[in-house]
Amino acid sequence: MVKCPxxxxxxxxxxxxxxxxxxxxxxxxxxxxxxxxxSSWNIGIAKKIVIVLGxxxxxxxxxxxxxxxxxxxSEESLNVITDxxxxxxxxxxxxxxxxxxxxxxxxxxxxxNYLSEQAGSGEKRFSLDCASWERVSINAQKxxxxxxxxxxxxxxxxxxxxxxxxxxxxxxxxxHYNY
Length: 179
Prior knowledge:
By secondary structure, this protein is mainly beta.
């Protein structure tokens, strides 16, 4: 029996060509051709597994490096927004508080657990950053104990969703809106 150097098939001793792959087994003089070269793909299963695992590990390390270097730091991802209430931000700030009174007034508005304080006279509008809040509260009162009408409105995207008013001299009103 003659083993083919290319595919490893066992051929009959008299074969000039491999019965499996037609590889030439003898030269012109009838001498057996010995091919000591191994194909570059004839490596063991264990080596193939090690190579594949090495490629996977390198790919994971590369992905991890790229991912970690493209993410913003905690300082960069912090969004701090301040607003003096002079601009109505309908998309980022869907709620606006409007306080109307001819005299001086004082108001606390926002999330019931985090109320901002405002004071003024006449009519003022305040944008409320409460897009993620479940409730909005507004508490307003007259500071000059006048007899005029104190009115408070809560607007969502430009439409009045809650309103309250008083004419009492020590007038104090509240709006509690759940959405």
